[in-house]
Write a structure and sequence with these properties.
By secondary structure, this protein is of the alpha+beta class. It has a domain of 83 residues. Helix content is 27%, strand content 29%. The protein has 7 helices and 13 strands. The strands form 3 sheets. Strands 6-5-4-3-2-1-9 form a 7-stranded mixed beta sheet. It has a 4-stranded antiparallel beta sheet with strand order 7-13-12-11. Helix 1 packs antiparallel against helix 6 and helix 3 packs across helix 4. 9% of the residues are buried.
């Protein structure tokens, strides 16, 4: 029996186009898309000091050779290293840690954090930062708040976001951002901004701000999602013939990627990397 259950849904004009449910069990978590007809789920759990993930094919009974596939296990030390590496300066990579219980290895990791910490975490200053405008800014703010609340479903309507996304190539910096100071960021207001060169996210916390190299973290998250089995899980669903995304007109079909126009961007405009 699930200890808790949360639903994450993407909507378009009020209609769910993609969603999944996350169930917390005593043996880990189960993730499954909410699209009707999908008979697979991803199970992630800890055992014997490692993180394990498997894809379960629900149409096969327990004991069948095809019931569980894509089993992989890895240590927490292996899983967290890409995150540490993403935070590291180019000239100061994190030490490799084979065991978080090894005092000498943990001492080296602690020394490294102490070394890079002041560059990454500091009190707010009057330095300028850029707030992202419109629906894209709202999405960014929500991503740092709502998904982490316990037992709260998360719904996001993409209508306004897609309308702004289609014009991103034509926006210059003044259209896309508002310039404020680090001291203007608030826990109860706008708390996520970009550095002036757009290389870092600046996130306010209680009494300090964190500067996060978001492109590095994005690459680290991609590696971690693959390790957790999301890529293989979605590939299994696609092969089953059941589409993940419901589109207009009550029909469903798979979509390989967002269609983009061939509009040119002004040479001197700034834009976010994708």
């Amino acid at each position: 029996m699930a200890k808790s259950e949360r639903r994450f849904s993407l909507l378009l004009q009020g209609r769910v186009v993609f969603g999944f449910v996350m169930k917390e069990l005593s043996s880990g978590i189960i993730l499954k898309p909410t699209t009707k007809g999908i008979a697979h789920h991803l199970h992630i759990y800890a055992s014997d000091g490692k993180i394990h993930r498997i894809v379960t094919h629900e149409r096969y009974k327990e004991g069948h050779v095809r019931r569980h596939t894509q089993h992989r296990s890895f240590t927490m030390e292996e899983f967290t290293y890409p995150f540490f590496r993403a935070l590291a300066p180019d000239d100061d990579p994190p030490p490799r840690v084979k065991s978080f219980t090894d005092e000498k290895q943990m001492a080296r990791l602690t020394e490294w954090f102490v070394r890079i910490g002041p560059k990454m975490i500091h009190p707010p200053t009057n330095r300028p930062v850029l707030l992202l405008k419109g629906s894209l800014g709202d999405v960014l703010e929500r991503s740092f708040k709502e998904p982490f609340g316990a037992d709260v479903d998360w719904n996001l309507d993409l209508s306004d976001y897609m309308a702004q996304y289609e014009t991103v190539d034509d926006l210059d910096e003044d259209d896309a951002f508002v310039r404020v100071k680090e001291t203007d960021l608030r826990m109860d207001g706008r708390r996520v901004a970009f550095s002036e060169d757009l290389s870092k996210l600046v996130v306010v916390a209680e009494g300090f701000v964190m500067e996060l190299p978001w492109r590095n973290l994005e690459r680290a998250a991609d590696l971690q999602f693959k390790a957790l089995g999301f890529e293989g899980f979605l590939r299994t669903i696609r092969r089953s013939g059941v589409p993940l995304v419901a589109l207009e007109g009550g029909k469903t079909r798979q979509r390989r990627g967002p269609g983009r126009s061939a509009r040119k961007r002004p040479r001197n405009s700034k834009r976010l990397g994708r």
